Amino acid sequence: MRRVESPLIGRTYRFGPFRDTVESLGFAMNETFDYHTAAFDYVLHKSKTDVDFYLRLDVDAVRGYIEQPQAEIIVRDIRILRAVYHRGFDYDGDIPR
């Protein structure tokens, strides 16, 4: 993981216009959001067999709830993340008891 310095960090926005803007730029809202926090991911590098890299915008609700268009959110963090995928099943490996 690498943190990205940006003037966006600490700024507040209305959720609806923010979501629409970042989605128009190619970001997708991560499916693990809840009422108070969400993440928007942009694919920097996609591999079918190895490592993926994402630019992630982490946001928190300041007033209202995530997914309410008028909710006020703050950009908490911006990071580059590395996602590593397994390479299949190990049929011959030992299984711990």
Name some characteristics of this structure.
single chain; 97 residues; mainly beta; six-stranded antiparallel β-sheet; 1 helix; 6 strands
In short:
By secondary structure, the chain is mainly beta. The radius of gyration is 17 Å and the shape is elongated.
Describe the structure in your own words.
The chain has 97 residues and is mainly β. The protein has one helix and six strands; from the N terminus they run ββαββββ. It has one helix at 15-24, and strands at 2-3, 12-14, 28-29, 37-45, 51-63, 72-84. Strands 1, 2, 3, 4, 5 and 6 form a six-stranded antiparallel beta sheet that branches. Strand 4 and strand 5 (51-63) form a beta hairpin.
Rg over alpha carbons:
17 Å
What is the tally of beta strands? 6
Q: What's the story with the biggest beta sheet?
A: 6 strands, antiparallel
Estimate percent helicity.
10-25%
Mean pLDDT: 89
Overall spatial form: elongated
Per DSSP, what share of the residues sits in E-state strands of 2 or more residues?
35-45%
Distance from N terminus to C terminus (CA atoms, Å) equals 33 Å
Low-confidence stretches: none
Give the count of helical stretches: 1
> Secondary-structure element sequence?
EEHEEEE
Structural class: mainly beta
